[in-house]
Amino acid sequence: MPNYEMPIIVTAFFLYFFAAVFYIGYIVLLRPWLARLGRWTAIAGLTANFAAAGLRTFHASHAPFANMYEFGIVLVAVIVCGYLWIDLRYGHHSLGAFIMPVAFLFLGVFILFYQDAKPLMPALKSNWLLAHVMTAVIAYGALAFSFAAALMYRWRRYLDTGANPALLALIPAPHVLEYLINRSIILAMPFLTLLIITGAVWAEYAWGSYWRWDPKETWSLVTWLVYAAYLHGRAVYSWHGQTAINWALSGFLIVLFTFIGVNVLLPGLHSYQ
Amino acid sequence: MNNQPRSRISRTFTSMKTGLFLLAVIILFSIAGTIIPQERTLSTAGPIFRFFYYTLNLGDIYHSWWFSFLLFSLCLNIAVCSFSRLPALFKSTFFTPPWLPSIAWQQEHRLNASPDEAMGLLSQTLDQAGFRVWDVTPYRICARKGQLAPWGTFLVHLSVLFIALGAFYGSITGFRYTIQMAPGDSIVIGAGEHSGAGRPFTLTLQSFTIEHYSNGQISDWISTLEIVQNEKKEALQAVKVNHPLSYQGISFYQSSYASLYPMEQRSAGRTVQAVRLQEKEPYIVDEQQGIAVVPIKYLPDFDAQNPMVSRSANPVNPHVIYLAYAGGRPLGMNAIAIGKPLLLPGSSAEVIFHSVLESSGLEVKYDPGLPLVFAGFALMSLAFFASLYPRRRIVYAQIRPDGDAACLSISLLGKSQLPEEELSRLCKAMIAAAEETSTRRADRAKL
Predict the structure, then answer these.
(1) Is B102 in the same domain as B237?
(2) Mean predicted confidence (pLDDT) in B21-49
(3) Are residues B182 and B244 in the same domain?
């Protein structure tokens, strides 16, 4: 049976790219039809994304969580789903100009890690895989959202110096964006904790060691500590505005390194993909 | 006079700023540990660098004395910070919040209801929004929501201490080591230096199999282990990756597999020594003359034309690729058939590889701190949700008569991210309820 997964996921990549272009066009040209076009293109891209994930599941005979490509296409689908839910429910189309570029760039990176479907290696044959990966999808998805909203916050602040009022009306106010960023991080943090804990418990059952200071474990802990510092800063020292946004931005850069950089640059237990 | 600086030091060490500083330092050194190769030994370096490297244990940062000290300091800081806030936490949770002497009212609304009706509606609206309501005075209300969130925060910190304590206890009282067993091998566990786990027992590897998928990829390594204690069979289990066997607190994990090479050294037709070598483990035939042999690889179907690759997985022409040493120097790799004597150059001794056994590598672990660590994990998982998801806030409201109607003054304080929006929602609900009551009252009057 021919496998159409690769052309379908590449189609999703291009559809996300065009969705990003349409959404950016919307905030540049202030044409509402561009936002509508962006939304429908994103929905088409999401359909292709889900189709590729479904085909991968069919060919591999397991949920698409076994390597970075498989996990990545699910993560991007969840990010786009989350954004479309906000778009349809709250009508914040301008967020798409920041989230869709993140989605299409992510998908591009994950396609570079493409590998053919194959059966699970012994260590991955565990129910903990599902819990570990699902918590990762929620945590990283929410943090990707906080990153996109933080970029938007910076841009919104830049526009405060005298932009077109019609454009300002399209973009959520800084305090609303800050609220969204903080809520995204608060949503992510328990799942980031669960991500590390499920990984530790799983490692205990698989290898008899819940913590080995493996590079991936260590960077996950670093990510967790950075966001823990952010939460303490907000709760105790009332960090807000630029300080909080800078933490959110740098926190996500560490997430990116933990997620992608470690697998590529630092050998360890997660380098098997 | 002496107490002042000491208390300042004590305050500094136990402050949250110090905690955040320690957090930052631990983050930096954790990152350093992933960049500096953690090799534990240094091959080439100058004497000064070598001194610092070994003194600071840079080859094993995460187990160095100073990194352990940083972790201990952070735990101490967390413990002091958390427990010093405990009385305030009790007070804020279990005592009625006091009425503030001066409140800047954030919103004021005229309600189409009598003051008593407005009070009832106010309590009802706040109750429906999940607030816990106190009547401070007849026309003053104080309501709280999310007051358990600080307990979640306290429990998160407590869980960190549980995990640290469990890890520390396990590291000083537990043990772990690896054993390599071929099918039929038995070994006594829990004796000698590892006797802390209970009475000794005998572990036997009954069988070891490697399962494959149809594409040749390994599906599972399966070790069937039997435990016998006092001549009674206590356990029989197939151990796989993700399926360890635990007995008397000692766990056995499938960790690796390797080939074992049973071999014999003969001289003048008599057996000198019979050993079982692991792959790439040297066997020294004559130490003085530097003669040794190292089994490198097993080829079940040897092909002289392509000597490093087996033609098939079937034992048609079984050979061992070996590396011989003479005068302490490698002589190069060669192949010898299973069961055929190998005469090593410069020696009258001959060695014979009798067979090759697939052996199972098992990790043996005893960690009495594990229950505490797992309890910490469970507590942390729940406490994080309890800490971050409910938002702690407090509403102060008062009703004043305003002719036939009532005037509502209301303020919302606390962790609400968008207090104006939340307060507006509450007021909108109040006004709607007052209008509905008013309409109903008018309808009743008409009837």
Answers:
(1) no
(2) 82
(3) yes
Phi, psi values for residue B333, rounded to 5° = -90, 150
In total, how many domains does chain B have? Answer: 4
Cβ atoms of B219 and B200 closer than 8 Å: no
Q: What is the token pair recorded at A132? A: 């570990």
Domain extent at residue B241: 173-258+361-378
Which residue on chain B is closest to A129 by alpha carbon? B242
B168: in domain: no
The predicted model gives B404-421 an average pLDDT of 78
At A70, the pLDDT band (50, 70, 90 cuts) reads: very high
Q: To the nearest 10°, the Cα dihedral for A100, A103, A106, A107?
A: -110
pLDDT confidence of residue B43: 65
**Structural tokens at position B350:** 């001959």
Quote the tokens at residue B20.
């955040």
pLDDT in tens, A7-51: 999 999 999 999 999 999 999 898 999 999 999 999 999 999 999
Please, what is the average pLDDT of chain B?
87
- B84, B104, B121 — which closes off a domain? B84
Residues A211-228: tens digit of each pLDDT? 999 899 999 999 999 999
d(CA A213, CA A219): 9
Interface predicted TM-score (ipTM): 0.90
* B118: CATH: 3.30.310.80
For Cα atoms B165, B169, B174, give the angle at the middle one, nearest 5 degrees.
150
Q: Is residue B163 part of a domain?
A: no
Q: Is B42 on the interface with A (CB under 8 A)?
A: no
| Residue pair B370/B166 in contact by the 8 Å Cβ criterion | yes
Structure tokens at B416: 């609400």
Q: Is residue B162 part of a domain?
A: no
pLDDT at position B393 is 83
- Partners of residue B394 on adjacent β-strands: B144, B413
Please choose, from the candidates A72, A159, A85, A70, the residue with its C-alpha nearest in 3D space to the C-alpha of residue A120.
A70
Interface test with A, best of B64, B210, B388 (most A CBs within 10 A): B388
Question: Distance (Å, rounded) from C-alpha B154 to C-alpha B354?
Answer: 64
Q: Do A175 and B380 touch (CB under 8 A)?
A: no
